[in-house]
Prior knowledge:
This protein is an alpha/beta fold. The chain has two domains: 112 residues, Rossmann fold, CATH 3.40.50; 174 residues, 2-Layer Sandwich (Dihydrodipicolinate Reductase, domain 2). It has ten helices and 13 strands. The protein is globular.
Amino acid sequence: MTTVGLLGAGGIAGAHIAGWLQLGVDVVVHSREGAPKLVARYGGRVASSLDDLLAQCDIVDVCTPTFTHRALVEAAAAAGRDVVCEKPFALTVEDTEAMIAACADAGVALYPAHVVRYFPEHVAVHDAVERGDLGTVAVQRYDRQGTMPVSPWFLDDELSGGIVTDLMIHDIDFARWNAGPVASLRAVRSVPDESGTVAAQLVLTHASGSVSSIGGVWSARPVAFRTRFEVAGTGGVLRYDSTTNPTTWVNGGAAAGADGYAPKATLGESPYVTELREFLAAIHGGPQPRVTAADGLAAVRIVDAARRSLALGEVVNLDTSLDTTLEGAR
């Protein structure tokens, strides 16, 4: 039986451990805090240390805060373990490239958990784009809002990258998946209001000439999670709004404390299960998943450019020649 070593015990770890257990794998968990509680709720067992976890597992699933990812991925690669890593891969392009190089040198897989590619409504619109149902994609609009995360590290840009890096990267990755490499972008972010609510907006110009507008809100006041999008092309338009059509999941579990932070559960397979199944199959010699290490790096390149745009207050250009499939990165 395959054993997955899950690192971390926060909200996203709940979705991952439920998914792995549904797939019938053994799970061992290590975290600075919370591992016994997570295991008591879902199942699996606790590892006493990182070394203990690495000694027991075949695959490492990194569900820890973003600023810890590089060191943990490099440790897993050094131990010869295949790796799944929560998005974003890292806070910087340099760290992301180092993670990919470590896994390539060790001959192990590395996959980024960009789970939005697995949500049924997003799958439907991407399939429509791929079939040509919408003609040539001209404009995409995405909005994502939720209650501000509880853990304080999310609100420290030096640890999480802020709202663009942590929240809006979902739609950045998806917009790129539909319309291709990003050639330039402009980012703006609100000054937090008296409550602390933060909002940001990106406009991406793709090399194809299409344009994507992406908005994100972290509300300091409790709000229902909401995501919506509109993809318009020369042949038609597709729209989705989670408040009117909440087609998410129940099977496989949702992240702890999901209200306001993630979609509410209804019917259907958890996109986390679908995602992890693809990663597991690929690691065992099956087809490559719909999201790869190259995609994870491309997303970090875009959010890095967005952070520079915020700092400079101007448009930032990207080198689209770097947005390619990586040799040795699976």
